[in-house]
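Hello,

Our lab assistant flagged a job as stuck in the queue for most of the afternoon. It eventually completed. Since we weren't sure the result was trustworthy after the delay, we are filing this so someone can double-check. Below is the sequence as submitted and the structure that was eventually returned. Let us know if re-running is recommended.
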Amino acid sequence: MSMALDGRDIIGQAKTGTGKTLGFGVPLLQRMQVPGGKTPQALVVCPTRELASQVASDLTIAGMDLGVRVLAVYGGRAIEPQIDALKSGIDVVVGTPGRILDLSNRRDLNLSSVRVLVMDEADEMLDMGFLPDVERIVATLPSERQTMLFSATMPGQIVNLARRYMTQPTHIRASDPNDESATVDSIEQHVWRAHPMDKLELVAKIMQAEGRGLVMIFTRTKRKAQKIYDELSERGFAVGTVHGDLGQGAREQALRAFRGGKIDILVATDVAARGIDVEGVTHVINFECPEDEKAYLHRVGRTGRAGNSGVAVTLVDWEDVARWQMIDRALKLPFKDPLETYSTSDHVYTGLGIPRDATGRLAKGDQTRAGLGAETLEDLGGKSPQQKPPARKPSNTRSGNGSGGGSTRKSPATKPETDAPKKAAAGKSRERRRTRSGDGT
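-- returned structure --
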């Protein structure tokens, strides 16, 4: 941290949950000139909206006594309030590459006075395809600046980025050189081979483990995340979800409800695996095998933070055993052959402290959380779609299936009127042709 305070360029590499935000946040805030002018003095680029929101919140709290003005800019929210805030004067801008470029191209965000640049979770920005946008942003900044790049891993493209845009950077690596891939020691890990048809029942029982606090369930697809959310809601659990098909208002509603304890289960795709720090997460469940060892580390790193203990359960499908064995080998874990597991398996109850009388539904007396509906859905003014309500089956489903004489299938109101004369004329024309051919002329 002392090197960052001296204004030197820094490459920080550490696994998730080790406090990278304050690692760059404290030096950044200390270098701010307060009161500042109209243009930002520092820029923090983040790969996801959720991470940008959290980093901005952390910097706002840390810089409150200093009078540092912090603004989060990202998509899904109306751009006009962000423009108004920039016009009134901001010291630190935290945002995603797309919205930063948008504001810069509109000349609403003036980057000419930026003296500190931070690229947070750079490897994630590479994986998400944001690297060209980041390069365009960096090209607009003053050459005389401090640059700090933070990442969990250092692929070749990130190293090249550092070489191009940093001046004699110091590479700081916060890890054990004897065990580079070690997961947090305080996390109790379970890896089970489970059948897809039994997973929801198994998860519902895990949700009733003794001492269970907040839970994050990760899945690879948006559709699967929504399905798990719907199913657990039906089973009586207080649950929310965060995935790309939701509008920003719905995503922030779920995260607020999760942090505030109105819900105790959050189902998410990997968009929430990076940098989202919520106190009290005791269990992480990988509903499916993660894509690789990096995704596994980021997911399970949501628990066992700040010296607390946690539990991570990974459910591996039969066809994903080979993928899991690659993860197991890369991380040097002792779970090469996942134990075949069902919702009735004895080791599920004994290993996680689940009552023997637990069923796949939460008892009425245990449904004490306020639920997602108790958290206000904020109208952010953005154009991204909000969560769609469940589709209702029409009352005439049976008669509208095309069979029988009772069909009530509807067509556009104007169609029958406009098309009827044409159809009638066509019918007469065909009838006349048939008459002529019948006469033999």
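-- support follow-up --
The delay was a queue issue, not a problem with the job. The result is valid. Residues 2-174 form a domain with the Rossmann fold fold (CATH 3.40.50.300). The chain has two domains: 2-174, 187-373.
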